[in-house]
Amino acid sequence: MSTRNVPEVAKQSKTDVFIIGAGPAGLMAAWWMARCGINARIIDKRGTKVINGHADGLRPRTDELFASMGGGIQEKIEAESYMFENLKNWVRGPDGKLTRIHTQLLCRNYVDDLPSPFLPTTISQGRIERFIIDGIDEISQGKFQVERGVMADTFTYDASLENDPNGYPIELTLRTLSDSEANPKPAPGAFGGRDVVAKGNMPRDELTHPTAPKEAPGTVEVVKARYLIGCDGGHSWLRRQLDYKTEGSTTDSVWGTMDIIPMTDFPDIFFPGFIKTDLGTLMIIPRERNLTRIYVPFSDEANGERFDRSSITLENIVAKAKKFFAPYTLDFKVCEWWTVYQVGQRVSESNQHPGNRIFLAGDAVHMHSPKVGLGMNTSMQDGYNVGWKIAMVAAGAIRDENAFLSTYAGERYPVAKQLVKFDRTLFGDHGKVDPENFRKNHVEFRDFSDGFKLEYPESVLVSQSTSKQTAATGLTVGESFKHHRVLAHATSQLCWTTKLFQSDGRFRIVLMAGDVSEPDQMARVKKLCDQLESEKKDASGKETSLLHNRYPYRFTFGQHPTQDKTLSTGQHPSITFLHEKPRTSMISLLAIHSAVKSTESLTVFDFPAALYGPFDAGYHGYDYTRILVDEAVHYDRYCDGRAYDRWGIDRTRGAVVVVRPDMHVGWVGDLEDSDALVSYFATILK
Amino acid sequence: MSTRNVPEVAKQSKTDVFIIGAGPAGLMAAWWMARCGINARIIDKRGTKVINGHADGLRPRTDELFASMGGGIQEKIEAESYMFENLKNWVRGPDGKLTRIHTQLLCRNYVDDLPSPFLPTTISQGRIERFIIDGIDEISQGKFQVERGVMADTFTYDASLENDPNGYPIELTLRTLSDSEANPKPAPGAFGGRDVVAKGNMPRDELTHPTAPKEAPGTVEVVKARYLIGCDGGHSWLRRQLDYKTEGSTTDSVWGTMDIIPMTDFPDIFFPGFIKTDLGTLMIIPRERNLTRIYVPFSDEANGERFDRSSITLENIVAKAKKFFAPYTLDFKVCEWWTVYQVGQRVSESNQHPGNRIFLAGDAVHMHSPKVGLGMNTSMQDGYNVGWKIAMVAAGAIRDENAFLSTYAGERYPVAKQLVKFDRTLFGDHGKVDPENFRKNHVEFRDFSDGFKLEYPESVLVSQSTSKQTAATGLTVGESFKHHRVLAHATSQLCWTTKLFQSDGRFRIVLMAGDVSEPDQMARVKKLCDQLESEKKDASGKETSLLHNRYPYRFTFGQHPTQDKTLSTGQHPSITFLHEKPRTSMISLLAIHSAVKSTESLTVFDFPAALYGPFDAGYHGYDYTRILVDEAVHYDRYCDGRAYDRWGIDRTRGAVVVVRPDMHVGWVGDLEDSDALVSYFATILK
Ligand SMILES: Cc1cc2nc3c(=O)[nH]c(=O)nc-3n(C[C@H](O)[C@H](O)[C@H](O)COP(=O)(O)OP(=O)(O)OC[C@H]3O[C@@H](n4cnc5c(N)ncnc54)[C@H](O)[C@@H]3O)c2cc1C
Ligand SMILES: Cc1cc2nc3c(=O)[nH]c(=O)nc-3n(C[C@H](O)[C@H](O)[C@H](O)COP(=O)(O)OP(=O)(O)OC[C@H]3O[C@@H](n4cnc5c(N)ncnc54)[C@H](O)[C@@H]3O)c2cc1C
């Protein structure tokens, strides 16, 4: 940890949560701070967000997070992104001819099954960052913004304050950079003298985005923080401050990458693909806005020696790519971005400081080949995971903060290791690619890479030990919820469960109510609801109801102090956005039953009051939206009445499922298991 | 026509197209002007757009127009709107009990058939206007905006200039209103003394919207125009200037309407519904943002006499509604909007001046009961229809301007008459509603009200006489195209045909290429393409090709003079938004073939060059996006390979379909009917 060297006059400040780095990981963590109204800051040494290039593959699981975050983030991304399917394998035979030998289906079957509401797609990292930034801007009403051109310079940590709830064990000095420091010039000749630049192909709104006002260059500030998240990328400055080693190695695999609008007579330029020749294997990734990304291998030219990648220009990449494509032509007038990189496959020795005050997320933890298409996704999932957990703790909602926060490392560190292992298997120890090998491993690692099998271990948040997994065999405790489309019992509205599980920090008790048209089953449902609503002595001896007042809602969404913007129009100060129903508890109950056609015979008021009450005397009256049904409708092909089957739940007897704020399954049981359910929450919340 | 009374010093100006009224009709017409870069203006006497209340039912056909317009308009609407299904009928029996007697399915079957890519929904008119306004702002880069608080005051018409292509036969004086004139105060006690106002429930971005800067109140301007569109609503000022009578009558049916967040124990408050009692029939329309609209009948209280509706307050409406709902409770704290209206059922004697320079659209032509849910939809469809036609003429693209423009009256006037007839049938001559009658007529008029059977008659644009309707029995010449989801042959991308038929003023030749895996069929496809590409003598004796250069593209989308905004970032002046492929011809050719699994055996380059060429040496090279296939895919349930069946096209032999810029079918024939196809365009374009 570095020594301090700060002018006496430096500005002093405090914040609860400090985030270094506003890439995909940092932005997701920051979104949670904005969402929960946490006192937080985020800096990035660069003067702008990523505008073009970098990552581009988006996985369905990440899209599910965006859908849950709301604010149109998922919809905006979907509208611009490119469906990623039908990998084409080409080889140059002994006769020198280039032939397509095989087409590989990448995508699971969405007709007979339903892997996710969303498809795997490609879209520029810059656009994704853009939409998250806009989302943060909207929910914070413009008050929470990335401080750009600001660098974290020194770091000290006072371990003695670690367990002091009022302590600020972290101290950083920040330095505002000059414009030239914050915006390094691209390499000379970046576009090979071509008369085009990248910006010409940008979406119209891409070139401006919300950014905090900047201090004068050279301004130094000393900031104290309770929690620190290092999302500062593969060369993580914070990782070095913490002296965490990285395990793994830099391979001798060097790649040139370019995002071009291709001009070619190669027929498969807009499909994902490989071209394997004696020069190695080239990779094609089609994209939105008529772009195609081409990965050109350079390692073999190094003949095993260490290779000076800074000598490679765009012209070299193009020249080599042309050799792969011959006899087809390849040219372009527009190159939106290009780079040369050497594949490293490394994992940080840890992603969390033992005191549970400092965390690393994203590339700061795991470095690997960009071509695996998981760097950005895993980084965002890291940021999302650590973000909601720190927000919960910062809001004072958590009983055992150390046990709770250490689930970050518990859940995400094995993912980091698995990711790098996957990368090594897919691309070999040398970071090279072999199409046959790719095909085999794509299938073998698919459950992991699609985010279906992450294997979050037992913890305060994942209670396999108190669960009855047999009640819902398709919803594995620890894994992400399997989303389906369901019908709202009292409104005809359809929604994906991603939308039911809004990212608002609440846990959901999903009462899979089974066949409520059977009086016996409805009696079981009522009994459970009674137990959840009934007032019982909590740890402090107070009589409280699990559902309503034992764990009051801690966040201020809808009453965020920054929402005064809307007050200028003269309405009553307490009225903002009434279409948001009030949240009063950290636990929300909703039911998904299986009684097909019962919307005629049963109204919401035939269900227990816990499912439509309490009556909100403020504005909303009863809530008609929390009873849903797994039933096929004639106006939608995805709402097909097959959710219970996928979830492995008995259609008559149902089950109970706890969905965590990040949509992972925390607990599963029968309708009679209310004691275990109550304990699940008692262990976590205070 | 009124006499002039204008200060000598008034500002003088000229414009090609002038639009009075920025409601749904005027905004749609204005969108076309912005889209095509036409010199145009739009005024509205009101100081703001509609913010709450007014119309709320959106039909799938209108959504299809939004999808074709692009810019995210459709997506934004869909994200906020409320699915409209399961009409519940309640009656009070002789015993005084209120019982649900019947549920009526409103929605067609989207599982076995595919009526549209979109569902019927409800959403506030204000939001729809908002998204169109944003769309206009975006495509005009902020340069084309509604001039608000400006009123058209006098009108003169010089018929002698009617046929002068350089003439401005129309002269208007405009007057800028004061803020109090432009923003009339709502009726006193509008919210019944309740401590809430409507704005509290608005979406966050609703209260600001782009508006042109305003002149000083009292400013008078004399403006000359070539074309004038009156979209000035039911009390149309322009209609009165033109001395057009209205046929029909004001009924004695008086309704009170309120948009509330209901607090009730009535179980079906979020379904569409009727409550029939001895007080008449009350109507329930559920909506987005937890709102429900309630229509309360008042006519019976008038006892046949003319009724002073200005005496009815919100309190009266609530009191009467409570009687309908008893024994259920009905209350609210939030009323977003309320009004009282008397149903008129009238049609203007004409919607088009014989000189083809002046047009009426929307409520200015047809007035009827709001409850039929077609006022706003028909108005938008009017505005869209007249908008593209005037844009085409103003851009100089049209051969016989009179014949072309008179198709507006030819197509839309019968729709206006049919609409009012439908309204009379549905709600009776007295504008009252009977649920049984509603049910019967809903089904009988369904094809009309859903926009499937509009029966646009034979004209320069609708050529039944030269068509061979048997080639595509499901795509009726004159009706709107039946949209389906199709697969792009060379990219894996899926799209609705709405997206293929972008509203850019182009006609599409849709070559339903049939089974191109059969060499004979591919030969037929090639032959047709050759004929369309080949250079032939046109009317002026020049050798031109129908497809490429006979009818050059007239609009400046992508090179709109207002796009200099993007140039500030320093890119090459000719490069803006390269993801838009260049449009060079008023006619675009695309193919949808039926050869399932042929994406492996056929590449784009196995098709005739007309389907992937010409090579764009500018930036894009070949076009890989214009060959599509009607094939089921494993990653989408709507792309089901059943389009040909719905279109009534032989899967082997295919057909040729001309889709007009407004997505109506203009012509249908066989692959051998190229002569008729060529003449279709020769009649329209120059
Ligand atoms: C040039 C490049 C090309 C890539 N190409 C691909 C690809 O083709 N496919 C793919 O899947 N992935 C690719 N990646 C990886 C992918 O972008 C990452 O996995 C993803 O961005 C990781 O997100 P992150 O938030 O962890 O880190 P980053 O996106 O790297 O963000 C880290 C941020 O921290 C800031 N920062 C660092 N140190 C400090 C400091 N001391 N003070 C203040 N700010 C600091 C940086 O400016 C940066 O904005 C690429 C990354 C890079 C850099
Ligand atoms: C109070 C009210 C309630 C309604 N409720 C419903 C409903 O519940 N359901 C339903 O389906 N439909 C309803 N409608 C009808 C629906 O709103 C109309 O069918 C639709 O708005 C018609 O669109 P339009 O563009 O033709 O006319 P309008 O929306 O009426 O727009 C006309 C515009 O022209 C402007 N204007 C008029 N004269 C001049 C002038 N001389 N100079 C400048 N500007 C001028 C007006 O300010 C107005 O903005 C309602 C309409 C109103 C007014």
Automatic annotation (TrEMBL), chains A, B:
Record-linked Gene3D superfamilies: 3.40.30.20, D-Amino Acid Oxidase, subunit A, domain 2, FAD/NAD(P)-binding domain
InterPro entries hit by this protein: FAD-bd, FAD/NAD-bd_sf, Phe_hydrox_C_dim_dom, PHOX_C_sf, RIFMO-like, Thioredoxin-like_sf
Keyword vocabulary terms for this entry: FAD, Flavoprotein, Monooxygenase, Oxidoreductase
Pfam families xrefs: FAD_binding_3 (PF01494), Phe_hydrox_dim (PF07976)
GO molecular function list: FAD binding; oxidoreductase activity, acting on paired donors, with incorporation or reduction of molecular oxygen, NAD(P)H as one donor, and incorporation of one atom of oxygen
Organism superkingdom: Eukaryota
Domain FAD-binding: 14-422
Entries under CDD domains matching the protein: PHOX_C (cd02979)
Transmembrane segments: none
Boundaries of every Phenol hydroxylase-like C-terminal dimerisation domain copy: 455-685
Family of the protein in this entry: Belongs to the PheA/TfdB FAD monooxygenase family.
Protein name: Putative phenol 2-monooxygenase
